[in-house]
Amino acid sequence: MQSSAVARDTEPNSKYDYKARRDKARAMWMRVAARYQHVVVRFVVGVNTDVVRQASIEDEQRIHFDFMMLPLEDRYDNLSNKTRAFFRAVAEHYPAVEFCAKMGGCVVLLYIVHVFDASPVQHGGLVADVLSGRIMRKMILPNFGTLRAGGPEDTTLSWWLLASNATFFEDRRLCRLTCDDGTVALSDQEEQGFPLQYWDEVWRHEGCRRAPPYPLPYVPVQSRKYPGLEKMHMLMV
Questions:
Q1: Higher-confidence residue: 217 or 231?
Q2: pLDDT in the model for residue 203
Q3: Which residues, other chains included, contact 111 with Cβ-Cβ below 8 Å and sequence gap of 6+?
Q4: CA-based Rg of the chain, rounded to a whole angstrom?
Q5: Counting C-beta atoms within 10 Å of the first and last residue's C-beta, which end of the chain has fewer, N or C?
Q6: Angle at CA 60, nearest 5°, toward 21 and 91?
Q7: Which residues, including other chains, have CB under 8 Å from residue 106's CB and lie 6 or more apart?
Q8: 104 DSSP 8-state letter
């Protein structure tokens, strides 16, 4: 899960309060994910040039030991480089990995889904990009030095996959506005995630906690012409 240190003037529980999101994930869905031996969850961070912010991450790591700390500067304009370094680190540390999900900490993950089961979990981040282990081993690792790192991370990742002729599948179950049968993760693109104040409310809502069908139904693209968060809230209350 992509994360970062918190700036000193950050409003508590806001979109940029990354520690609050990490603490919420630890208390909720990460405890459930830990039951599965084949699932590893880590907060992915780089090195912060602000010594106070860097020290806060190191203190948090000593308590929880759930960070993947990459040897690069953690800046917004360095996210594409952080992305390729993350996939390389996963491929090197977990050579038998089948799939790797790069998630942000701003959204709600409802289920851990694998081939034989769709298991409800509590909360987490947006499953934005899922790469197979084969792509990481055959595309990321051997071409790491020539993968261009610039521009938005999602666009840059698309360039890499297009250049490698990889098969791409856009699955809208990973990014929904409402808790439908096929929803895996909740997100509002206009909000760049899912506001933290809604997470507990979603978890308490029976429609978002019910056991998912198997196999999960395919979900078409969901239009953002209606007020997503407002509708979601109305459905919950």
A1: 217
A2: 73
A3: 118, 119, 120, 121, 184, 212, 216
A4: 18
A5: C
A6: 80
A7: 15, 21, 125, 126, 187, 191, 192, 193, 194
A8: E
| Structural domain spans, the chain | 18-236
Q: What CA–CA distances, in Å, run from 84 to 90, 128, 160?
A: 10, 15, 10
CB of 189 closer than 8 Å to CB of 155? no
Q: How far apart are CA 231 and CA 169, in angstroms?
A: 27
Strands 43-47 and 67-73: parallel
- Indicate the pLDDT class of residue 48, thresholds 50, 70 and 90: very high
Average pLDDT, the chain: 78
Indicate the range of 134-148, 156-170, 180-194 predicted with least confidence.
180-194
Cβ contacts of 211 within 8 Å, gap of 6 or more: 118, 120
With a cut of 70, say whether residue 22 has pLDDT above it.
Answer: yes
- Helical (H) or strand (E) element with 235: helix 228-236
